[in-house]
Design brief:
The structure holds two protein chains of two kinds.
Chain A: H1 2-16, H2 25-35, H3 39-44, E1 47-56, E2 59-68, E3 73-79, E4 82-89, E5 94-97, E6 104-106, H4 109-117, E7 135-144, E8 147-161, E9 164-175, E10 181-187, E11 197-208, E12 211-219, E13 222-231
Antiparallel strand pairs in A: 1-2, 1-13, 2-3, 3-4, 4-5, 5-6, 7-8, 8-9, 9-10, 10-11, 11-12, 12-13
Chain B: H1 2-19, E1 37-41, E2 49-54, E3 62-66, E4 71-74, E5 82-83, E6 92-97, E7 106-110, E8 125-128, E9 136-138, E10 147-152, E11 160-164, E12 176-180, E13 188-191, E14 197-204, E15 212-222, E16 225-228, E17 234-238, E18 246-247, E19 261-265, E20 268-276, E21 285-289, E22 297-300, H2 303-306, E23 315-317, E24 325-327, E25 333-335, E26 343-344, E27 352-357, E28 365-369, E29 372-376, E30 384-385, E31 394-399, E32 406-411, E33 416-420, E34 433-436, E35 444-445, E36 451-455, E37 462-466, E38 471-474, E39 494-496, E40 504-507, E41 511-514, E42 522-523, E43 542-543, E44 557-562, E45 570-574, E46 579-582, E47 590-591, E48 604-610, E49 618-624, E50 629-637, E51 645-646, E52 658-663, E53 671-675, E54 678-682, E55 690-692, E56 701-707, E57 712-717, E58 722-725, H3 730-733, H4 736-740, E59 743-745, E60 751-753, E61 778-784, E62 793-798, E63 804-808, E64 815-821, E65 849-857, E66 860-870, H5 878-918, H6 923-940, H7 956-968, H8 976-1013, H9 1023-1028
Parallel strand pairs in B: 16-43, 60-66
Antiparallel strand pairs in B: 1-58, 2-3, 3-4, 4-5, 6-7, 7-8, 8-9, 10-11, 11-12, 12-13, 14-15, 15-16, 15-17, 17-18, 19-20, 20-21, 21-22, 23-24, 24-25, 25-26, 27-28, 28-29, 29-30, 31-32, 32-33, 33-34, 35-36, 36-37, 37-38, 39-40, 40-41, 41-42, 44-45, 45-46, 46-47, 48-49, 49-50, 50-51, 52-53, 53-54, ...
Helix pairs in contact in B: 5-6, 5-7, 5-8, 6-8, 7-8
The chains are: A alpha+beta, B alpha+beta.
């Protein structure tokens, strides 16, 4: 009996999961949250500590990423036994470690302001995107990583680039088969890649406290492999702050 | 969560039952997975620009619409550009920004409009509403072929006018001016003359959007001629937003007109300028109207104003001064007196098609030429080139057998070149070598000598270049007494023999053969063309302005193919539709044209590929675009042309006419097709074709070569330079069996661990295009039936005993995945210190041998064995290399021994500090231990300073790490100096170890006793634990 019931539910899910052709961006996004743990559970999330490593041609660099839903974040790397904060943002100030002196330095005002404008990126910019002032648009179907996907455009708040306002636009590809996000393209606004797209891919989704996170992320060709995700980690009050203040 | 698991479960089940019987289709994007093309340019000569567009308010933003390389955007005021239109046709007519929303809304009319013989074709009208991120085709312009103008009402973005120049080689009712009032949903044709007359410039009065001007042009090209001009060319004006149009010719000479360039001064809407092509030479050139077109006066017919109107008809008026005018042309011209007099613009690439003033500063001028975009900062006297636009337009390419191999090719208006397929630091502008002037076409390397053959248009010169000695000789076939006048195509065919190295072929209407590298020639065929005299009068080509550049020479041989299996089998294709073959080295020729199937008469034979898979096997590619027939045609014969079979399927765009085919040398069913809209690949002999789009825009592919040693597909594109797909050998194995497996590793040949170490410079690369290199790493290639999304998937390299050497990041795409491994194992764990030791960045390479690739996907494990070999260019003996590998391991171990020692010291110090802080009784022994250890530590590792100029003197760790890195990173034997240094460091390390033992025995013992007494413990990780924690 139980088997039958399971099978019935399975078939039902199959019928539901690959969504019918006519799509709206909201349907795709809602389905994504539903399938990865439920929107209500995602909303309860306050932050996460992600432990893993970056493999740079034989050199495995341990990393710890801390991301809070209020925008606070910190990336710690371990280099030859030395821990250093590659960058951090405490909600007000953004800072980074200078690799020459190994000392903390504050980021420039424009970078910090831009960070403040789009603090809603974790766990997903799509979570309650309207309240964040973002807009979404369904673009169409596209093949990415060999998979059939739905392409959704996300427009966040414009940022300033060298004194001039630039839109913040990215494209997100949700696998048609299973509804999860597998690839994101973001327009690069500055630097030598300006005007081109930077690609991130997501895979190895695994469950942590009922929420599904990608444990393998590739950003611009650089792979990040996560081994552990701690939900709502307990952190010191000044954890994200510029060291002076500690 | 439950739902997710169920979904996965169900999805995994369902396809099994539903698709068990079904054949997997051998096509589609997923076939190629993450096999990606790489672009190597060159950009140093760039390529033709059709249209430039500046942002109306943001001085950093500008766009270049290119003739064959898509749309490029600059965000830094023209210093560098990036492509933004790579999913669509690459031939661009016009780029227009919406004046009300220039950041977001961009219109692109496709199909280049400066209608030379070699132009590509467009594919309609496109719009982006997100600054170029995504594009949508606007319906209604599918057959427009060439769009010259898009004009948007600055007061209402829904009102847009589009000028369709239309088809170049045929009649078309799609020509004319179109208008939408609903932002592109519906369109009305508001000005139409006849099927031969298209809309050139459509312009709008800068103050009154209801006032429009249009120039109409009657023109036609054939394979053998060109006509510009007719009774229907005219300037029209509308004052009611396009409802009614009137000719405004008051003052113009009567009779036919040709192409007309038109401009209105932005600062004076009564001032109109027009460049005319008329029947009266004296009246050609620049005209002005100072009353908004009511009457015209003639100003100037200097060369710069009348030269090649079909190619140069752009006039631009300074936005701030109606008397300052720029005119495109061979050199480009500028007038500062309202058009009465002109001077040439400063030196830049010739053939200026579009030219614009900066929005705020007229000293700054941007020009679009046959050789890219140029910038002037001083009002047009000095120009500098934009260095990162790889828009080179190849007619032909070939490769050699060097390592890395070189690519040879000729370019539209940019000579002939060769350059490396890979180069230290990437393929840069300075890597390319010039081997010909004028328009370049075929460039071939002598099979055994360092000799290069190249040519210019119409075989006016064919060069034989001795590369080593830097000597050039002109060797084209010349007529001798009794010969007919030789007719060479503009892009005249050449071929080298695979059987007789000094043999060289050329084609006029005859096949010419030389057995001494072009010093003397023998005609070995009769006239193989139709020799139709109606297609041979080029002296009057051009229409109102004669244009006899040689580009229209017709009834000529266009392709010559010698069988790789038999030197006596030669295939010839002509531009007027003949396929001819000889099996006896030219004594007898058979015209097999009547045996062709489905090819309209006289369709240009663009390429014949003589197969390696059978003497009588060949592929013939036909293209009829110069008659307006855009259909793809490719035939295969296996019996010397007696019977033919089409290998084109419906998968190929119906307008993607074919210019080239390349067969695989191993698998007869694997074929590569170069079309006007990019590359198609079949793995089943043409039953199914797949469009290759991974970093490959739908650019016109004019020629494909396959480099035999590397299995690379090398494409000469007409607008995006040389594009390479590295090692296509996995495609040889694609079949039903492979595609039905969950995971399939493709076989790989033993990989050479390439040894190179040099410097790459890289100066100037900030703003220069640098082409990607072929990875020298091992390529681990596998097929995944489904994209991996849920659960762990990892990959590691193991030795044959199963010890992990390193981990890699596997690709997860459905289809083919390529993972690169650079033969490195893991880098050593370094002793902790204040600063970084560069020794820690070096990982030892593996010795030559067999290794296991282990892919773990969920619960399943897949293994594949790869083999590595030493480079045969090695500068060491095997014994020396083994010694180097041993020393590397010895030093690696020493570096990690030191790391563990420093770890032990650190842990003991931490414990001692704890006691100092909390246990007054033990403070003394703890302090003694701490100080002794600190004394030691400061001799082992750097404890002060930074990573730059405030760095401390190197300690043991730094010196040891440097020696390790130098030995491990070298391809040479370990030097005597290194061995002596090793002796010193080893001795020093031994001493420090003894010192550490002594401390442990003295201060350490006392401290340990104290700990024991007080029930405290010092916990140390074992060395294995410590090193495992990487």
């Amino acid at each position: 009996m139980k088997t039958l019931k399971t099978l019935f539910i399975a078939l039902l899910v199959v019928a539901l999961a690959p969504l019918a052709q006519a799509q709206t961006a909201d349907e795709i996004i809602d389905n994504y949250f539903e399938i990865t743990g439920g929107k209500a559970n995602w909303e309860k999330l306050e932050g996460a500590k992600m432990v893993g490593s970056v493999n740079m041609q034989g050199m495995e660099i341990p990393i710890e990423m801390f991301q809070m839903t209020d925008g606070r974040q910190l990336l710690k790397i371990n280099f030859q036994g030395q821990e250093m904060v590659q960058y951090a943002f405490d909600g007000e100030e953004m800072w980074a470690t200078n690799f020459m002196t190994m000392a903390a330095e504050k980021s420039d005002a424009e970078t910090t302001e831009n960070m403040k404008k789009n603090v809603g990126d974790f766990p997903s910019p799509f979570l309650n995107y309207k309240e964040k002032g973002y807009t979404v648009e369904y673009i169409g179907e596209e093949t990415k990583e060999g998979a059939e996907t739905y392409k959704v455009k996300l427009t966040q708040k414009p940022i300033m680039v060298d004194g001039k306002e630039e839109p913040t636009i990215s494209y997100h590809y949700f696998d048609k088969d299973n509804g999860v996000l597998i690839l994101t393209e973001t327009r690069v606004n500055q630097g030598p890649m300006a005007g081109q797209m930077s690609m991130s891919t997501f895979s190895d989704y695994q469950e942590v406290n009922g929420l599904y996170f990608p444990f393998s992320i590739s950003m611009g060709g650089q792979g990040v492999a996560l081994t552990d995700i701690v939900i709502d980690p307990e952190l010191e009050e000044n954890f994200f702050a510029f060291p002076e203040k500690k | 969560m439950k739902k997710l698991i169920l979904t996965i479960f169900a999805l995994a089940l369902l396809p099994l039952s539903a698709m068990a019987q079904e054949e997997v289709t051998l096509k589609g994007k997923e076939l190629f997975g993450d096999m990606r093309a790489r672009h190597i340019g060159p950009a140093l000569m760039s390529g033709r620009i059709n249209d430039l567009e500046l942002h109306p308010t943001n001085t950093r933003i500008m766009y270049a619409g290119t003739a064959g390389g898509g749309v490029w955007k600059s965000s830094d005021g023209g210093a560098t550009f990036a492509p933004i239109f790579d999913d669509h046709v690459q031939s661009i007519g016009v780029v227009t920004l919406d004046p009300k929303n220039p950041d977001q809304v961009i219109w692109v009319g496709t199909g280049e409009t400066w209608t030379r013989n070699s132009v590509s074709v467009g594919d309609g009208l496109f719009r982006s509403t997100d600054g170029g991120g995504t594009w949508k085709e606007i319906p209604g312009f599918e057959n427009s072929e060439r769009i010259a103008s898009v004009v948007i009402d600055p007061t209402n973005s829904d009102v847009v006018y589009v000028g369709v120049l239309g088809a170049l080689w045929s009649d078309s009712e799609d020509r004319g001016v179109y208008k939408t009032t609903d932002g592109g949903k519906t369109w009305n044709k508001i000005l139409y003359v006849n099927p031969a007359t298209g809309a050139g410039d459509v312009i709008m009065d800068p103050k009154n959007p209801n006032v429009l001007y249009t120039s109409m042009w009657e023109f036609r090209r054939t394979g053998w001629g060109f006509n510009s001009g007719g009774e229907n060319s005219a300037i029209y004006k509308s004052t009611d937003a396009g409802k009614t149009w009137n000719k405004i010719h008051n003052g113009f000479p009567a009779g036919k007109l040709g192409r007309i360039g038109l401009a209105v001064a932005p600062s004076d809407n009564n001032r109109l300028y027009a460049v005319l092509e008329t029947e009266d030479k004296e009246k050609n050139g620049l005209w002005v109207s100072k009353n908004a077109g009511q009457s015209w006066e003639h100003l100037n017919n200097d060369f710069g104003l009348v030269v090649r109107p079909f190619y140069f008809s752009r006039i631009t008026v300074d936005p701030r001064n109606p008397d300052i005018i720029l005119k495109g042309g061979l050199s480009g011209s500028i007038s500062r007196d309202g058009g009465k007099t002109f001077k040439n613009l400063g030196n830049m690439h010739s053939d200026i098609h579009d030219i614009v003033f900066h929005i705020n500063d007229s000293d700054i001028i941007y020009a679009g030429t046959d050789g890219g975009v140029y910038r002037s900062w001083n009002g047009g006297t000095t120009f500098e080139i934009v260095e990162n636009l790889p828009l080179s337009q190849f007619y032909h390419i070939s490769t050699d057998n060097a390592e890395p191999y070189n690519v040879y090719g000729g370019l539209q208006d940019n000579g002939s070149w060769w350059g490396p397929s890979s180069s230290p630091g990437g393929v840069e502008a300075r890597d390319w070598n010039s081997v010909g002037a004028g328009d370049g076409f075929r460039v071939l390397k002598h099979p055994t000598k360092n000799i290069v053959y190249s040519e210019m248009q119409g075989a006016e010169n064919v060069w034989r270049i001795d590369v080593d000695k830097n000597r050039t000789k002109t060797i084209q076939p010349l007529p001798k007494k009794g010969d007919a006048e030789l007719r060479f195509n503009w892009n005249a065919p050449m071929a080298v023999s695979a059987h007789v190295p000094d043999r060289f072929y050329m084609g006029s209407q005859f096949v010419h053969r030389s057995d001494n590298m072009g010093d003397s020639w023998t005609i070995i065929s009769p006239d193989l063309t139709t020799n139709d005299p109606k297609k041979q009068d080029q002296s009057s080509s051009g229409g109102l302005s004669v244009d006899n550049s040689g580009a229209e020479n017709h009834t000529t041989i266009f392709t010559i193919a010698e069988s790789p299996l038999d030197q006596n089998v030669l295939w010839v294709g002509t531009d007027d539709g003949n396929v001819q073959v000889t099996q006896d080295g030219g004594a007898n020729w058979t015209n097999v044209t009547p045996n062709l199937v489905g090819i309209p008469a006289n369709t240009w034979v663009y390429h014949i590929e003589a197969s390696v898979h059978g003497k009588g096997t060949a592929y013939a590619v036909f293209e009829g675009h110069t008659t307006g027939d855009m259909k793809p045609y490719t035939l295969k014969t296996t019996d010397f042309g007696k019977t033919w079979k089409s290998i084109i399927s419906d998968d190929i765009d119906a307008r993607a006419f074919v210019r080239n085919i390349q067969e695989d040398y191993v698998n007869e069913d694997l074929l590569f097709l170069g079309t006007e809209f990019g590359l198609y690949i079949t793995v089943d002999g043409g039953e199914n074709w797949s469009h290759f789009t991974n970093n490959m825009p739908p650019v016109a592919v004019h020629f494909i070569d396959m480099q035999k040693a590397t299995n690379d597909i090398v494409m000469g594109t007409h607008g995006r330079g040389v594009i390479i797909i590295d090692d296509i050998s996995p495609l040889r194995e694609i079949d039903q069996e492979v595609l039905s497996k969950d995971v399939h590793f493709f076989d790989t040949e033993p990989v050479t661990m390439v040894e190179e170490g040099g410097f790459s410079g890289g100066f100037g690369n900030e703003t220069q295009f640098v082409g990607g290199n072929k990875p020298t790493s091992a390529r681990i290639i596998y097929y995944l039936k489904k994209r991996h999304t849920f659960g762990k998937m990892t990959m590691e390299i193991q030795d044959m005993e199963g010890n992990t050497l390193t981990t890699l990041t596997p690709g997860k795409s459905k289809g083919i995945n390529v993972v690169n491994w650079n033969f490195n194992t893991k880098s050593p764990k370094m002793a902790a210190a204040k600063t970084l030791s560069f020794g820690g960045f070096t990982a030892p390479r593996v010795p030559a041998g067999k290794y296991k690739v282990v892919l773990t996907k969920g619960k399943d494990t897949y293994e594949h064995i790869i083999e590595t070999t030493y480079d045969n260019t090695a500068i060491t003996t095997l014994a020396e290399r083994k010694n180097q590998e041993e020393m590397t391991q010895t030093m690696f171990k020493m570096v990690e021994d030191l790391a563990y020692m420093v770890y032990e010291i650190g842990e003991m110090q931490t414990k001692a500090q704890e006691v100092i802080n909390n246990n007054p009784k033990g403070k003394k022994v703890a302090q003694q231990l701490y100080d002794a250890l600190e004394d030691l530590r400061t001799d082992l590792v750097v404890t002060t300073g930074d990573n730059y100029v405030a760095s401390a003197e190197p300690e043991l760790r730094e010196r040891m790490g440097d020696l390790y890195a130098n030995i491990a990173g070298s391809y040479d034997r370990v030097t005597g100096a290194q061995m002596q240094n090793y002796g010193l460091i080893k001795e020093e390390f031994e001493k420090e170890k003894q010192r550490f033992e002594a401390i442990k025995n003295k201060e350490g013992k006392k401290f340990m006793k104290f700990l024991e007494k007080n029930d405290m413990e010092l916990k140390l990780a074992s060395k294995e634990e410590f090193l495992g924690d990487k």
